[in-house]
Amino acid sequence: MPTLTPVDQPEFLTAVHYVAARIRESGWRPDVIIGIGRGGLIPAVYLSHATSIPMLSVDHSSHLPDFSAGLLATLAGMSAAQRLLFVDDINDSGTTITHIKAALRDAGGAIDNVRFATLIDNVVSAERVDYRFRTIDRTANKDWFVFPWEQVSPVDKVIEDSAVVPERLA
């Protein structure tokens, strides 16, 4: 069984404010924040409110083209004239970011206008993010982080979700 590490609401709010401050300090202001479903949707909503930047969403986890590939093609077109900030809860293996970057490139997106933010960033991930609250090293930290919105799930469902990619926690 994985070690379940709760992220409480005060820490979550601190993380959102921290990431918002890093975005402001960077001098790069996104035109749109895009929440990556499921885990990045709530952080994106909060970040949208904290920065007064409008928010959209994609749902990579659903594997439904109308909610992922189709929307990423639309966002690729938007990236020619707008700055896009994709938000997720954690950059773990990097596969989600790799997928999004590839989909945007394949659809002719302007990757220079795209950045990524997460609450937690795995330093040994295949991908890097531009903004983060905290870092972990998955070679040493195998905890499964349970964010406030996940804490309403039955524990067995949280454990089931953690087992989707077992090498993250092994």
From TrEMBL:
<dbReference type="InterPro" id="IPR000836">
    <property type="entry name" value="PRTase_dom"/>
</dbReference>
<keyword id="KW-0808">Transferase</keyword>
<dbReference type="GO" id="GO:0016757">
    <property type="term" value="F:glycosyltransferase activity"/>
</dbReference>
<feature type="domain" description="Phosphoribosyltransferase">
    <location>
        <begin position="8"/>
        <end position="149"/>
    </location>
</feature>
<protein>
    <submittedName>
        <fullName>Phosphoribosyltransferase</fullName>
    </submittedName>
</protein>
<dbReference type="Pfam" id="PF00156">
    <property type="entry name" value="Pribosyltran"/>
</dbReference>
<dbReference type="InterPro" id="IPR029057">
    <property type="entry name" value="PRTase-like"/>
</dbReference>
<keyword id="KW-0328">Glycosyltransferase</keyword>
